[in-house]
């Protein structure tokens, strides 16, 4: 490896480099590390320990201080790669395999030298290899290893290293006809390329899970393949090497094998499940494959059991809503509905409610399509329409198993709705979901299905409408300085001004992958049926009349809960506008 005090001549200051600052004398003289500190730092970096983990061991408060000291000690510049802009022409002719092998990245061209950020500044062999491969003078700079890895992902995309290896293998073993292989031919071809394709697919899956994606979209395009992750409810395109298109069929076939689907069938939709382990935790993935114009499209729903905790206290309910909902879910009988569009967190709310009331004295049975998560201590039934096991049919059978609480995944038709009302009238507490815009609309929806209004009004005890909004990233959020004239008309500007409330908007940083948001939380509107609401429902009053009555009874609307969370600094005005509409 050479002398750890090895130095390189460095030209003047550049915009991508931070100026040097002298470290305090009690750490090292003139901001430099001694031989023992340098050796310890070199060992830690080689073993890929995060800088911030071992910085305190060497007397530094944070990673940036240690990186500056390493740069000073080695007479190198320190490059901060946060939000750095790079001319992609620099990458032309730069060997991808060496970027991955040594975890380096070219960031600028300086006269006759190529400036390269190193994740390991002690790896002098890397500098020699890069110089030999490019035929250029290499000017190394010290950077945070995590920033270098993020840069590699950002510009080269998921699976770039494996694709590079596959291309090399293709030259040696002629895998160019992989796209035309099907059935047994593809299985035979796997002998030549299985390990690499397995690795590539695993990289796509593990990268999505690490990014907290709820869904993975692999879409066939006329001129390539598009990979998108749904993160915090919003689809984000992921960079991928253009060469990945050559291995599209291999990727699809590998996923079919993992999901135990027919790899030869490309004419009809197929559904399956994959169970994998990522960094010691078990993750379920639901796979849907549909034939499209330019090839098969794949959408995978990620069900990460380790990161999901079903607790009403943790899903963002306001205190008053939480207390009233707690009383509802402990009623001896009746119907409790959760409404909202697909992907609004209805299943999480229902599972959290069941987990709250589940004990040895309560028998709970659910009928779902599909079963998203397996709940300990709760009996779950998977709907199978092909054999006649619908929501309505399973609900009839469930009542013969002496349940106390029943969950019906969704009330979709009159038969299911009537069975649910009869179950509540015979002493059962029934949970279910509906697709309505707000809580008041649930009464009209059930009546429109054909349920008698008096049955709806006498059995529905409460309706929770909800939406999901993205939470602002606490690392980069900034005050929203918009004037009152630029704010929505119903935003409580005067209240915020009177209370000195600071409203924030998203910015974007490395912690949130540039989106400005990290994580999601719910907006809630809980309608608890009272005498006035029951009378209105019996008389088939319009939804807005029921809503007004609920507000008079103390209900806060989705929009109001959204503005409250904006004033708490946890989400933005734009997020509330995205998922709610102004109250009439």
Automatic annotation (TrEMBL):
GO CC annotations, alphabetized: plasma membrane; type II protein secretion system complex
The alphabetized list of GO BP terms reads:
protein secretion by the type II secretion system
Q: Which superkingdom does the taxonomy of this entry point to? A: Bacteria
Polar residues biased stretches:
1-12
**Residues annotated as signal peptide:** none
The GO terms this record gives for MF are: ATP binding; ATP hydrolysis activity; protein-exporting ATPase activity
Return the EC number. 7.4.2.8
Using the UniProt annotation, give all residue ranges assigned to the region (Disordered): 1-30
Spell out the CDD domains in the cross-references.
PulE-GspE-like
Which segments constitute the Bacterial type II secretion system protein E domain? 399-413
Residues passing through the membrane, by range: none
Q: Keywords on this record?
A: ATP-binding, Nucleotide-binding, Protein transport, Translocase, Transport
Under catalytic activity, the entry for this protein gives:
ATP + H2O + cellular proteinSide 1 = ADP + phosphate + cellular proteinSide 2
The entry assigns this protein to a family as follows: Belongs to the GSP E family.
What PANTHER family does this protein map onto?
COMG OPERON PROTEIN 1, TYPE II SECRETION SYSTEM PROTEIN GSPE-RELATED
Q: What is this protein called?
A: protein-secreting ATPase
């Amino acid at each position: 490896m050479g002398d750890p005090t090895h130095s390189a001549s460095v030209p003047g200051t550049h915009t991508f480099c931070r100026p040097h600052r002298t470290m305090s004398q009690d750490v090292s003289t003139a901001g430099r590390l001694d031989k023992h500190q340098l050796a310890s730092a070199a060992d830690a970096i080689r073993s890929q320990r995060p800088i911030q983990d071992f910085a305190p061991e060497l007397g530094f408060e944070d990673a940036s201080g240690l990186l500056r000291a390493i740069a000073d000690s080695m007479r190198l510049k320190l490059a901060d790669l946060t939000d750095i802009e790079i001319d992609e022409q620099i990458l032309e002719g730069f060997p991808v395999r060496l970027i991955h092998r040594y975890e380096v990245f070219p960031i600028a061209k300086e006269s006759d030298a190529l400036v390269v950020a190193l994740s390991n500044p002690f790896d002098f062999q890397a500098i020699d290899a890069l110089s030999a491969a490019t035929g250029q003078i290499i000017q190394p700079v010290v950077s945070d290893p995590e920033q270098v890895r993020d840069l590699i992902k950002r510009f080269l995309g998921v699976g770039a290293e494996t694709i590079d290896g596959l291309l090399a293998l293709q030259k040696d073993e002629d895998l160019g006809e992989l796209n035309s292989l099907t059935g047994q031919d593809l299985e035979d071809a796997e002998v030549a390329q299985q390990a690499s394709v397995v690795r590539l697919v695993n990289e796509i899956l593990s990268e999505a899970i690490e990014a907290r994606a709820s869904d993975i979209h692999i879409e066939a395009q006329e001129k390539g393949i598009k990979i998108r992750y749904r993160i915090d409810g919003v689809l984000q395109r992921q960079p991928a090497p253009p060469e990945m298109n050559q291995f599209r069929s291999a990727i699809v076939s590998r996923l079919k094998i993992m999901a135990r689907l027919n790899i030869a069938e490309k004419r009809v939709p197929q559904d399956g499940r994959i169970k994998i382990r990522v960094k010691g935790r078990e993750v379920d993935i639901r796979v849907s494959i549909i034939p499209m114009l330019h090839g098969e499209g794949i959408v995978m729903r990620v069900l990460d059991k380790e990161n999901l905790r079903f607790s009403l206290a943790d899903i963002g309910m306001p205190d008053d809503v939480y207390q009233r909902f707690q009383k509802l879910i402990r009623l001896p009988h009746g119907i409790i509905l959760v409404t909202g569009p697909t992907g609004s967190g209805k299943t999480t709310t229902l599972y959290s409610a069941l987990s709250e009331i589940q004990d040895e004295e309560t028998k709970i049975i659910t009928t779902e399509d599909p079963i998203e998560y397996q709940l300990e201590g709760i009996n779950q039934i998977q709907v199978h329409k092909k054999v006649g096991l619908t929501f309505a049919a399973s609900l009839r059978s469930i009542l013969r198993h002496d349940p106390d609480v029943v969950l019906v995944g969704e009330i979709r038709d009159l038969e299911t709705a009537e069975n649910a009302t009869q179950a509540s009238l015979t002493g059962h507490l029934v949970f279910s979901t509906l697709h309505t815009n707000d809580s008041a609309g649930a009464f009209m929806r059930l009546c429109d299905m054909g349920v008698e209004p008096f049955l709806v009004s006498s059995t529905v005890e409460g309706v929770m409408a909800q939406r999901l909004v993205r939470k602002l990233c606490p690392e980069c959020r900034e005050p929203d300085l918009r004037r009152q004239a630029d704010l929505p008309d119903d935003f409580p500007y005067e209240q915020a001004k009177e209370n000195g409330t600071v409203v924030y908007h998203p910015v974007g940083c490395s912690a949130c992958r540039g989106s400005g948001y990290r994580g999601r939380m719910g907006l809630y509107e809980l309608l608890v049926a009272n005498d006035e609401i029951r009378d209105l429902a019996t008389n088939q009053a319009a939804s807005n009349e029921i809503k007004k009555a609920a507000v008079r009874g103390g209900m806060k609307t989705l929009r109001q809960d959204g503005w409250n969370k904006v004033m708490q600094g946890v989400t933005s005005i734009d997020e509330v506008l995205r998922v709610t509409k102004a109250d009439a």
